[in-house]
Amino acid sequence: MPDSLINLIIFSTATILGLIIVGAIVIFFIRDTTQKKHTILRNYPIIGRLRYFFETQGKYFRQYFFTGDRDEMPFNRATRSWIYKNAKNMESTVGFGSTYDLREPGALIFVNAAFPILEEDQLPTPSLSIGEGYCDQPFLAQSIINISGMSYGAISAPAVRALSLGAAKAGCWLSTGEGGLAPFHLEGECDIIMQIGTAKYGIRDERGKFSAARAREIAQSVKAFEIKLSQGAKPGKGGMLPACKVSPEIAAIRGIPPWQDSISPNRHHDIGNIEELLDQIAFIRELTGRPVGVKTAIGGWHFINELCDAILRRGPEYAPDFLTIDGGEGGSGAAPQALIDYAGLPIIEALPRVVDALIESGLRQRIRVVAAGKLVTSAKCAWALCAGADFVNTARGFMFSLGCIQAMRCHLNTCPTGITTNNSRLQRGLVVEEKYLRVANYAINVNHEIGMIAHSCGLRHARELRREHIRIVETAGKSIALNMLHPYPEIRNQRSN
C-alpha cells in the first residue's frame, strides 16, 4: 500500500475522530448550560464534569493510594488483607510490631495468662445443640463462625454455590437470607438455616401468606428456621431487590412475578407484638419439628425484657431456640444511609445487654445467642464469646473470602467480582471450584485463631471465654475489664427451664 494512501487513511481517521470529539464537546456544552439541576455544570460546562467524576471515583483512589491500612471504613485494608490471607490459607504472621492502635477507645485487649494452656491440655471447641428438649429434631452446630443471611438474587448463583460447598467442608451453617431456599443452597449438602422474612419469600402461598405445606416440605432440607424481624443495615425497613435482578428463576423461588421490584414489608403482617411472635415460634416448631429462632436488631431494652417476661409467663416451650442479634453497623444488604448510619444499637452494646436480660430471667441456657455486626476477625469473634454469644454470623467476612474488594456496588448489579450481580459476564470471574475452598479456609482458620486466643488466656477451648478475659480501652493508657463494664447480673427468676 502506497505511503500516500496510508497517510490519507490516517488523516481521514484523525479528522473523523476530531469531529466526533468536537461534536461531543458542543453537545455536552449545550446540555450543561441549559440544564437546571446542577449549578456547577451550568456555570462551568464541561470542566465541571471533572468534579462529579472525581467525587465518584474518589473512594477507589482513597482505598488504594491515600488511606492508611487501619483508616478506611467500613472495613480497612488491614482487615481485608487478614481475611484474604486466611481464605487463601497463607501465613498470617507479621513482623516488626502491630499497627493496631491500643490507645484508641474501644480497642480490644485479651487478658493473657501467665501460664497459658499446654498443647496437650487443649481441647477442641465443643459443638452446641440448638432446640434440644423442645423440638423433634434439634440441631447440633459445630462451628463458632457461620454464614449470615444473603439471599439468592442479592448474591449470584456461583456465590451461593461456593458458600454452600465451603460451609459443608468447614462444618459451618449457611443462612438462606430472606430470599428463600434455592437449589444452589443445597448443592454442598451443608447445614442450612431457612430465614423467614417479612414477605415470606419461598415459604408463601399464592396470596403471599405463610404456607404450612411449604414449611413442612422445606423442613426436610434445613436444620432450623429463623424468623427475621429486622436486620442491622435497615431496622424498620423491608428489603428490596431491583427488577433487573428478579429473573424468572429467582421469581419462581420467591413466589413473585419476574422483572418487577421485589419489595418486602417493613414487618410481618401476622407478627405485630411479642405474643404473636411467640405463637408463631411455637407453631412453626410444632409444624416442622425443627428449631426456630429470631433475628433482630436492637434499638432499646423494652423488646428483650418484654420477650423474657412473656416467655416466663407462658413457659419455656414458647421461647425461641436461638436469638440472632444484629448490630446497627450495617450489613451486606444495601440500605438508606439514614438507617445504615443511625438506626440500631451497635453489637458491642446490644449483645451484652441481651445476654444480661437472658441471665436475669434464667433463660440463658434455654436460648442460644448468635451475634452479628462486622464480626469478621477472630478477635471480634472471641470478643463476642466473652460477651456471652454462643455463635457468630458474618456475611461480609465470607464475601471477602469469595474475593469481594469492597467496591460498594452491591445494589447496582455491577459487582466486579461476580458476587452481587446476575450479569453472566461478571459472574464468570467467580470460579466456584476455587472460591469454595477459600470460604472453607476462612471459617476453619477463624475458628482455629479463636481457639488460639482462648489458649493464650489459659483456657482449654474457646467456649470457656468469659467477660473477665477481655479488656476494653477507654482512653489512652487506661482499659477496663468487660465484666466491670458489663457486670454479670443476678438471676431474678429461679423458674426451671
TrEMBL record:
Q: Which CDD domains match?
A: GltS_FMN
**Domain Glutamate synthase span(s) in chain numbering:** 132-459
Going by the UniProt record, its keywords in alphabetical order are: Membrane, Transmembrane, Transmembrane helix
Biological processes per GO annotation: glutamate biosynthetic process
Q: TM segments? A: 6-30
InterPro entries, per this entry? Answer: Aldolase_TIM, GltB, Glu_synthdom, YerD
GO terms, molecular function: glutamate synthase activity
Q: Which family does it belong to?
A: Belongs to the glutamate synthase family.
This one is known as Glutamate synthase domain-containing protein 2
Give the taxonomic lineage as stored in the record: Bacteria, Pseudomonadati, Pseudomonadota, Betaproteobacteria, Nitrosomonadales
